[in-house]
Fold:
Amino acid sequence: MVLIRPQASFVALSEAHFSALHVFVRLALWLGMMPPLCAYVGMTKHGWQLGTVEPLMLPKVTIGVICALYFFALLFGFISAAIIGRWMAGTYGATRDLGAHFALLVVVGAPLVLGSLMHLYPDVFLNLLVLVPCLIWSMFLLYRGLPIVLQTTPEQGMLMASSMIGYLFVAFVSLLGISVCLWVYGIGPRLGV
Amino acid sequence: MAAIKWPAAPTTYEDDVVLAFTIAAVLWSLIGMAAGVYAAAELVWPALNLDFAPLTFGRLRTVHTNAVLFGFAVSALMGTSFYTVQRTCHIRIFAPNLAWTVFFAWQLIVIAGAVSLFMGANAGKEYAELEWPIDIAITVVWVIYGVVFFGTIAIRRIEQIYISNWFFGAFILVVAMLHIVNSLAIPVSAFKSYSLYAGAQDAIVQWWYGHNAVGFLLTGGFLGMMYYFLPKQSERPIWSYRLSVLSFWAFAYSYIWAGPHHLHFSAIPEWVQTLAMVMSLILLAPSWATMINGIMTVSTARQKLREDPGLKLIVLSLAFYGLAMFEGPMMAIRSVNIISHFTEWTIGHVHSGALGWNALITFGCFYFMVPRLVGQPLWSVRLANIHFWLALAGVMLYVLSMWGAGITQGVLWLSLDELGQVRYGFNEILAALQPYYLLRLLGGSAFFVGAILMSINLFMTISGQRTVTVAPPTTSMRSPAPAAGTP
Amino acid sequence: MNLMDWHRRIERHTGLLVFGIIAVTSVGGLVQIVPSLFQTSLSTPVAGLEPYPPLALEGRDIYIRESCSVCHSQQVRPLLAEVMRYGATSKAGEFVYDRPFLWGSKRTGPDLHRIGGKYSDAWHRLHFMDPRAVVPSSIMPAYRWLAERDADTGGSIQNRMRALQLLGHPYTDRDIYFAPQRLAGKSELDALIAYLQMLGVSRPEGG
Structure:
């Protein structure tokens, strides 16, 4: 629904009232579980594929840990983005209702969750190919949906959406940096450093 | 004091030269990006080198970086700095003839540079490839540029020098210093010289130059642009004047030290590497302070924001600035650098800055400035909005594909197998990168198409128009500044 | 006087602003860059290092002309996998005759600092003529025209060596006198291969 007619569903969202807990337990948790689950199935079945080199098969326990960490990273991203959004809301004249922030993020994240079905076959390139258009679609939804769902003017919403994107960039790059540091210190693939 | 003779009240601003620089910058962006897209395609289909020397990847990439850096970025900065310095000093530019000299001479330099690089005259230092005769020409033109810019400040009719001009000033002064020191060489013939420095010492000097060219040209210069156009478009003074003062000096002081982080794990002294890493991390504070100052300036505009497609691009560019300015110090951490160095991650990082920050803020400023220069509304707001989405999609494709490629390279190069041997052959890893190169080509092309739409839009706006004559406000001589932080 | 009052002076005086910027931005360079220019450990050649003979020097200048360094680094980092893949870690003393240095910043192709002697001249020749004939996954351009061009068409080899001699490279006048003969009959491709075969060969002891 939200993927086909975003405008109408945003209006519907802004009119309905959600309790934060409700959105979180009923939607976010389950949607957040999708990517790690797909990744778990994909990695145990096909191994981690980095292009043409032989796939990297890891023990099931390791995969379990990685997927659990993945789940918590997503959860952290979700909650922190909502909190940051709520914190910025004052500046941009948007609503401070946490339920609305959660609802917005669920909708914005939906294309990415859908795209993460590609994790069932964890080829890095194929995943990127699917997830990048999903990401751009998500950004589009964020710019479009934010002013409606969080009840602010389109101009303020544009600013706030850009600030949110800025935060998400930094959160993602930090994750990248932390993973790389962990690998270099010997957790993860075996590196000759 | 009575003896001081103030210049006669100016009639109008000299905006023709600004428009000329703008048009040149747009053209150079198209040429530079076309070269970039073609070079990206060569990495996917090496046959595109066509056995034709000037088109081979090595020479073409060098032309690409020179066209976007010296053609696009510097022309854009010269144009916007002339626009800004006149309006913040309430006076017609000092010696308009010299400003025009800078324009023509600079364009000739970039053309000569591109041709000489295609021909194979190359000094061999990254981002300082131009040979000594052009280097000398650059120095001369740069001095004239400095005379025009600081001359205008010196004859200003406003007591205070506006923030933008500090940044533009630092850009002019530091680039001059970097260029002269790094380009010192013994000429052999008109197209060949040998660097005055050798080996490891040359490396240290070169990356002091290379990093700070990024710092003071692509960061400092463009922050000058931001500090004028952002408050102007949102009709608000700078959010925190104190923060802009602090971040300017901290930025100018700490950037200079960070260069040798390009040389981690190389044969230069260890203390130089460590110092560069620490200073890179410190640098995060002033560069983010500037970003926060910018974003808060627009954010506090409670009243209606002007329906301006340019503003959208500028605000998005700040998000990318924040990304690049965070990613850079992170990649300067030695543990991260082990993986990221020498890989496509670096290329992705550069482009998140160059496309996401520099190009987008410039495009945003052009969408604001050009209609005002010719006194016409923008030809098509709809086209500008399409440009926004093409640009965003293009950068995201570019950056994400390079993250993917970079991490693949970084990890696979260093992977060991169970026997403790190198796990993958170099060529095996190279083959795995092909899809990412294709994706990057796609992203770069989308961004390029967006830029083409913009040039059509701007040329249709300009078409048949002359610049309108704008007179400075009739303030008294050396009147105090409006309010701190108001351009 | 508080900080902002102090700054009010700077932002009202062109000369002070210019001076302030130059002062603040010079510190890093003076403390970090200038000392290394006088650090002799960076400019002392490793034992056995010779300046490039004429043919290799010509090859090096071709390497610069074609911007090979935008895709190939010449810097082996002290990392286990890297030493296994390429060879001994690069030392500062191996580069003292490199003007400019060619460490590069990107490895689209492999590192070349220890390439010397790894492959035969014939392999290199074949590889430059058609890289994919030797390495199927290669994306390097072919450099066929180098084989058709005579080395040092401009006839500047003696001037180049004299310039380097001026900068302290230990060429003898005899080396310079006979340089054109060393290049006679050679193609640019021969010169480039001669350069590659010299790379990283004079290793520091224990390397």
